[in-house]
Amino acid sequence: MFNGKKRLPRAAVGVAIAGALGSILALAQAQAQETVKIGLILPMTGGQASTGKQIDNAVKLYMQQKGDTVAGKKIEIILKDDGAVPDNTKRLAQELIVNDKVHFIAGFGVTPAALAAAPLATQAKVPEIVMAAGTSIITERSPYIVRTSFTLAQSSTIIGDWAAKNGIKKVATLTSDYAPGNDALTFFKQNFTAGGGEVVEEVKVPLANPDFAPFLQRMKDAKPDAVFVFVPAGQGGSFMKQYAERGLDKSGIKVIGPGDVMDDDLLNGMGDAALGAVTAHLYSAAHPSAMNKEFVAAYKKAFGNRPGFMAVSGYDGIHLIYEALKKTGGKTDGDALVEAMKGMKWESPRGPISIDPETRDIVQNIYIRKVEKVDGELYNVEFATFEAVKDAGKTKK
Ligand code: PHB
Fold it and tell me: Is the model's pLDDT at 139 over the cut of 90?
């Protein structure tokens, strides 16, 4: 006993420090458990950057509108740029899962990126939410994949039928030379030729820096009734520029296809050459629902331009994550989350959508649209609706 003060024995001091450390650790752990981490892997640079931008914007908008807490958990987005290079996607997905311990991986601007991450999702039992890529086989590559974008088969079968029934007899095709382009071509051809149409020429262009000029010159000479075009989001502007420069807009050769080539974020910049193009697609900024009007207005206000179909796919992807977390009461077990997503139905800015419980793929309306001028701006104006379209491209088992 010194200075009249009581001193704690050494052992007691040790216990007190250990106790304090313990509670700090427990607090940190509790905080970690209170956070749900989403690794968002997108092409923010390179040729597919418009897809990354649209999805990143849409996720931000959704979180501004709905808040960043769901089922008592704080949502944290970790954005990574893979430049649409699948080796990068794989490395980033691995780092996000192992180091950051994310509860979801999401995004995936192109098919090869979505496929590269699939084995990691399976191994780690982490849901992979595909918000952009559109090849049918993707959801078959992991039981943890759920898609909120689209498949090329959904739109290409429908435009194939429409073309055959609407006086288009001879078509030349131009498709991007990778998996979704091949799906677009296969499913268009299947339905168009079954309806009596003929494909007179097939050209494939590389995904990176495609040159459309040689194809367009040949088309000008061959004079098919229409050209069927699939290029991924972001490339429609340069295709239509070259189409107009070669005077094809004045030659009576129609542009048809899935709607990727007429993406809303580029459409206004394409000028009058785009007028009359008929495409089948999941989304138009001109979709006349109250929800879409609000969505378009909010997106324009926040980012200064129109949302395209990639923005809507991202908006629905983050919605799916929020709703699944509500259903699991905030639990982040991968199997429980995927189970919660199966069969989920909701109203999207694109119209009513759901997740097919069998395939984990999106079921949605496909609209046939024609480019028209409305109040001085170009829009894809919807004129026919095919309801609740499932993917036609799943492997028959
Ligand atoms: C894809 O790579 O799957 C993809 C990308 C952009 C599109 C459509 C499909 O517009």
Answer: yes
User: What is the crossing angle of helices 309-327 and 334-341, to 10°?
Assistant: 120
Report the separation in Å between the CA atom of 10 and the middle of ligand 1, taken as the mean of its atom positions. Answer: 66
Between β-strands 145-147 and 128-130, what pairing exists: parallel, antiparallel or unpaired? parallel
Q: Could you read off the pLDDT of 322-344 as tens digits, one per residue?
A: 999 999 999 999 999 999 999 99
- Is the backbone of residue 367 left (phi > 0), alpha (psi -120 to 50) or beta? beta
Instruction: Check residue 17 and give its pLDDT.
Output: 61
pTM above 0.85, yes or no: yes
Residues forming a β-bridge with 69:
74
| Pairing between β-strand 362-374 and β-strand 351-355 as defined by DSSP bridges | antiparallel
- pLDDT of res. 222: 85
Output DSSP code: residue 45: S
Q: How many CB atoms within 10 Å of residue 344?
A: 16
Compute the distance from residue 18 Cα to the ligand 1 centre, in Å. 55
| CA atoms within 13 A of residue 261's CA, in its CB half-sphere | 32
Q: What is the pLDDT of residues 206-242, one digit of tens each?
A: 999 899 999 998 888 889 999 999 999 999 999 999 9
- Choose which residue among 53, 82, 108, 110 to substitute to test ligand 1 binding: the one with the highest number of ligand atoms within 8 A of its C-beta: 110
The pLDDT score that the predictor gives to residue 219 is 87
Percent of the chain with pLDDT over 70: 91
Cβ neighbours of 181 (radius 10 Å) = 24
Give the ligand 1 atom nearest the CA of 134.
3
Angle subtended at Cα 131 by Cα 126 and Cα 132, rounded to the nearest 5 degrees? 130
Ligand 1 mean position to 181 CA, how many Å? Answer: 8
Query: What residue's CA is closest to ligand 1, atom 2?
Result: 110
Structure tokens at 369: 């649209």
Point out the ligand 1 atom lying closest to the alpha carbon of residue 51.
6
| Ligand 1 binding pocket, CB closer than 6 Å | 110-111, 132-135, 180, 232-233, 260
**Mean of the pLDDT values across residues 167-178?**
97
CA distance 159 to 197: 12
- Return the sign of the alpha-carbon dihedral for residues 68, 73, 79, 84: negative
Q: Is 300 left (phi over 0), alpha (psi -120 to 50) or beta?
A: alpha
Helix (H) or strand (E) holding 373: strand 362-374
Residue 4, pLDDT > 50, answer no
